[in-house]
Amino acid sequence: MAIVDELAQLREEVHRNIEQAADTQALDEVRVSVLGKSGTLTGYLRSMGQVPAEQRAEVGRLVNEVREQVESALAQRKQMLEAAELEADMAAGALDITLPGRAQTVGTRHLISRITDEIAEIFLGIGYTVASGTEVETDYYNFEALNTPADHPARGMQDTFYVVDRSGDVAAVRGESDVLLRTQTSGVQAHVMETQKPPIYIIAPGKVYRRDVADPSHLPQFNQVEGLVVDEGITFGDLAGTIDYFCKQMFGPDRKTRLRPHFFPFTEPSAEADVSCGICGGEGCRFCKGTGWVEVLGCGMVDPNVFGYAGIDPEVYSGFAFGMGVERIACLKYNVPDLRMLLNGDVRFLRQF
Ligand code: DAH
């Protein structure tokens, strides 16, 4: 058979093989068998020397033509096969929308934040505003301006974390007042009375710190909400009514409240407020240690000395103050027996609220 016919036949055959290649791998095998080192067409190119001289130009042109045609047919088929393979891959990896979905767990606000807001809303509803202070405070505002001088025995009630400087000495502001982590939010009272004129109706939520070991009723860091009212003609009756209103809003309308005499350096007279036990309803049980009452907060009438530090005239104004532990309120509201349960981050516990 003449070389020209051989080439025509080869072209036919290669085109057929290209058409029939089922995937890119098979197509590559076709390419190698024609154009590879020992491929059929490559064979023709190599043996051009043996072609009679007068046919050489014609055969050479034809071989090149066949090669170009084969190359373009290969490229076209390759593109098609690749697209088909991609499609098949995507179809195989696609989502099975009939599978049941995975449940998403939704985060919620922590109980302590929620109770803080609830307390704030009760007081905002009766005209109070929110004041804030800093967790790093001076001895002056945390103690002295609250009628608790350095030698006052009441300082022993609150073991304090002091801030020390590099040499290990207690840091001081202007060499005068020691720096500490506030043990109570009551210091905000002193700041507010220095900067605001009566009438004052504020609450001040915030973190406080004490050198206590955590146990069911103590935490070394916890949250308080302070309250302060200064106005003309404020009486102990106003204080009692406010505390009773707060407790009924927070714990429920059938709860009773009572005020028991107590001592705080910055109030005179001072009291602790109790609410009737939520578990036994006042009968007496283990939760209320058989008394029927549980302690909620400390409060009292602002001591005239405290007004003196702030420059408010106690002849014109009177006021009351109160302070409560947020964790304690949360535990009382939901009958949780141990403050530490609020802090261990167990979502099975926290999800209940
Ligand atoms: N600061 C007190 C404490 O941490 C609580 C307290 C008692 C605050 C009486 C007051 C108050 O404002 O009048 O134990």
Give an overview in words.
- The chain has 353 residues and is α+β, with helices and mostly antiparallel strands.
- 40% of the residues lie in helices and 20% in strands.
- The strands form 2 sheets. A 7-stranded mixed sheet has the order 1-5-6-10-9-8-7, sandwiched between helices. The chain has a 3-stranded antiparallel sheet with strand order 2-4-3.
- Strand 3 and strand 4 form a beta hairpin.
- The longest helix is centred in the N-terminal third of the chain and has 41 residues, at 53-93.
- The mean pLDDT is 92.
- How many structural domains are formed by the residues? 2
Describe the main β-sheet briefly.
Answer: 7 strands, mixed
Spans of at least 5 consecutive residues with low confidence: none
Bound molecules: 3,4-dihydroxyphenylalanine
Q: What is the total tally of β strands?
A: 10
CATH superfamily of the largest domain: Bira Bifunctional Protein, Domain 2
What is the CATH C-level name of the largest domain?
Alpha Beta
Strand order within the widest beta sheet: 1-5-6-10-9-8-7
Gross geometry? elongated
Q: Which oligomeric form is depicted?
A: single chain
- CATH architecture level-2 label of the largest domain: 2-Layer Sandwich
The CATH topology of the largest domain is: BirA Bifunctional Protein, domain 2
Mean pLDDT: 92
Written as H for each helix and E for each strand, in order along the chain, the element string is HHHHHEEHEEHEEHEEEHEHH
**SS strand fraction:** 15-25%
Work out the helicity level: 25-40%
